[in-house]
Write a structure and sequence with these properties.
By secondary structure, the protein is mainly α. It has one domain. Helices cover 81% and strands 0% of the residues. It contains five helices and no strands. α2 packs antiparallel against α3. The N and C termini lie far apart (35 Å).
């Protein structure tokens, strides 16, 4: 199960790297920082055990799904025909993230220590990272 989620995340990263080249998009200069932050977040939540790791999964995937939905709305408003392929990719990846979110809930994420505080803190960090990445 975790391996399947990991494989999907690697697929997402590979595809987005290809899309950045195809659409001539510069990645954020903060990417190295986000790589470290992601590792620290994953390792830190794992220290709370399986439930903590699942709580982290729920929080992150909910934030990412929301971000994908914002991107979908923007592309639909701009030119849905022009971005048809990109929209399909983003919708598929959003659905993958929602599946990961649901898996986290099924595996007792809400039973993690201080779940609501942990979830809010992680989501605040995700929103901040997205905000900064869109600007830097």
């Amino acid at each position: 199960l975790l391996q399947q989620m990991w494989n999907q995340e690697k697929e997402h990263l590979k595809k987005f790297n290809e899309l950045m080249v195809a659409y001539r998009v510069r990645p954020t200069v903060l990417l190295p920082l986000w790589n470290v932050a992601g590792f620290v977040l994953g390792a830190g939540s794992a220290l709370l055990g399986k439930k903590g790791a699942m709580a982290c999964t729920v929080a992150v995937e909910e934030s990412i799904s929301s971000h994908y939905n914002t991107q979908i709305r923007t592309l639909m408003e701009e030119d849905p025909e022009k971005y048809k392929e990109l929209l399909q990719v983003i919708k598929k990846f959003r659905d993958d993230e929602l599946e990961h979110h649901d898996i986290g809930l099924k595996h007792d994420a809400e039973e993690a220590p201080v779940y609501s505080v942990l979830k809010k803190a992680i989501q605040l960090g995700c929103k901040g990272a997205i905000f900064l990445s869109e600007r830097i």
